Amino acid sequence: MEVVIVPDATAGGELIAEAIAALLSRKPDALLGVATGSTPLPIYQALTAKVRSGAVDASRARICQLDEYVGLPAGHPESYRSVVLREVIEPLGLSEKSFMGPDGSAEDVQAACEAYDKALTEAGGVDLQLLGIGTDGHIGFNEPCSSLASRTRIKTLTEQTRIDNARFFDDDIAQVPRHVITQGIGTILESRHPVLLATGEGKADAVARTVEGPVASVVPASALQLHPHATVVVDEAAASKLKLADYFRATYAAKPQWQGL
Ligand code: F6R
Asked: Which interval of the chain is the signal sequence (predicted)?
């Protein structure tokens, strides 16, 4: 995997927004997989700025969700559908028609998971999948010991993830759903270009285990080592436990610019 160390979250957001811009210029109807949470917000802000300045035409872009809480009422402001509408679809000026996600309020959750996994394939597959990382090494909501071959399915959040996400629910863990629908690790690995952004010292351990540890389901993000074109963008704080940080810096500094991410 390629590891790019950037000074801060803003620089990471800008770099990844540039990669999305390059993708949209060669494939205007690219399917972009989006993550929620705090980390990707600088990407969405940088991309929105490019669209508003006319530097990027995202009008034909298609957007798909990575994961969703199970059981939140439709329209709940913290459902990931609402978050993506608010942070991505509306700022980019897209319509809901260009957006697909799993149905977290379906009565038959398993059928909803299978339908979503199939819909991603039928849509031609995800061109670029944005990912954050949990402090426990999860991608999507594939918590530790998720099968590396998993498909979209229901998962139970760890206590740590519910604690981490309580900030979106009035700091009240009781309001954080226990169950989620998430693209599986096998599903994520089918995307043409997974791009993980990690910022802040709290992610440094998970990043080091992902990049420099063995591939192991106990660190789900380490599965990205199996992808032929995975990119991990980290700020200095998130890179602080990487033993090979200097090598990653030198490699990226010497990379021909035309290659992009
Ligand atoms: C969200 C998601 C999660 C988050 C991760 C990090 O759609 O899939 O894997 O990316 O929990 O969250 P933040 O960015 O809030 O630290």
From this structure: none
